[in-house]
Amino acid sequence: MIGAEMTMLRTTVLLTFTLVLLSCKKDKEDPLTPAPPANEEEVITTLVVTFTDLQTFESKEFRSTDLDGDGGNDPVISTEELPSDREYTVTIQLLDETVSPPVNITQQVQDEAEEHQFFFQVNGAQLTIQYADEDANTHPLGLLNTATTLGAGTGTLRVTLRHGPDKGAAGVSGGDITNAGGDTDIEVTFPVTVV
Fold first, then answer.
1. Which of 56, 71, 83, 139 could make an SS bond with 167 (beta carbons 3.0 to 4.6 A apart)?
2. Range 107-115 contact pairs with CB under 8 angstroms and sequence separation of 24 or more
3. Cα(50)–Cα(79) distance, rounded to whole angstroms?
4. How many Cβ atoms sit within 10 Å of the Cβ of residue 62?
5. DSSP E strand stretches across the chain
């Protein structure tokens, strides 16, 4: 009787040990639940372009907010008049305002500078913009820039952020978007008034 109890006890211990080992084995990935993407795209609802006058240190803000994204309501765009015959520093800030508090996306773009570039297309207005920053490969990024207003007038400024552009393509380092390729993260056309 004692031998049978010992055999049963050994079998129980062996079975318990086996179950413990099996339960500790790493689970296989669930094929029905896909893994998150390696580099999930950031949500950008708001683009802020700030012109700071190098003579008076006064700042003028161009802002576009589109909380419902593409295809919904039009973005809310606001701008301020720029005095003519002035030089400016131009900085860009990117926000995700779908959450509270808003998330500043600007640093993520800075951290991935080699994979991003801003483009500035001026139409009609007497405004020029030049890059004042660069990535680790000495290609422009566009979070920091300089600008000059040459005279009074009106027009538009289109600001485009491209993800994965070909920065070595013809004209791209000079700010020409024609051969840039890549994907557009955000694009906004601002009305410009130079007085």
1. 139
2. 108/42, 109/141, 109/143, 109/161, 110/141, 110/143, 113/141, 114/139, 114/167, 115/163, 115/164
3. 10
4. 22
5. 46-53, 59-65, 76-78, 86-96, 103-104, 116-123, 127-131, 144-149, 153-163, 183-194
Q: What is the pLDDT of residue 32?
A: 53
Nearest Cα residue to 114 out of 133, 99, 132 = 133
Q: What is the pLDDT of residue 29?
A: 46
Whole-number Å distance between alpha carbons of 14 and 173: 69
**Tokens of residue 190, six digits:** 């601002």
CA 175, CA 160: separation in Å to the nearest integer? 11
Reduced to 3 states (helix: H, G, I; strand: E, B; else coil), residue 135 is: coil
Block means of pLDDT (10 residues each) for the chain, length 195 residues?
A: 48 45 44 45 91 98 91 92 98 96 97 98 98 98 98 97 98 98 98 98
pTM for this one?
A: 0.79
Residue 74 DSSP label: P
Q: Which residues, 6 or more positions from 4, have their beta carbon under 8 angstroms from its beta carbon? A: none
Task: Choose among 158, 36, 147: nearest CA to 86.
Answer: 147
Closest alpha carbon to 125 in 153, 102, 144: 153
